Amino acid sequence: MSIDEARNVMTLWGSPEDVFAAPGEAPRLRVRDEGLTRDIFAHIGDDGTVSAIEVWKPIPSKCQGEAVRVLYGDMDIFALPANDVIRSFRDRGIEVDESDPFYPNCPRLTLGFNREGGDDIEGELGVARFFESVLVARPGYYE
Question: Which of 28, 55, 59, 128 is an S-S bond match for 115, by CB 3.0 to 4.6 Å?
Fold first, then answer.
């Protein structure tokens, strides 16, 4: 999908804005609403097409209205503790790469997760107890 096609599709969620990249970074599109019930990025690859979509967890204290949910089957990725989500993926036979504890991913599903920041930090490494964002990428993204 081209950046223009992504921009058109993202109008379903609001008014997409260009996020200008720092040198060496790919450009992105972002759409969010004033109530912060959704904050979604389209990451654009070097070839000018969408390489990934990233959905950020709504900020409960700032949400006005029904917030976005990210589901994998019956599993609510933002509502469950990150360790429970990871365990559930593994129980389903899905490989989870935790070589970077702040950014675990399921390479075969091309799903990535962000555990950096957040209000509820745990463990010696200081990872977030809940995922802050979920990234869905095209095949080969984690290769």
Answer: 128
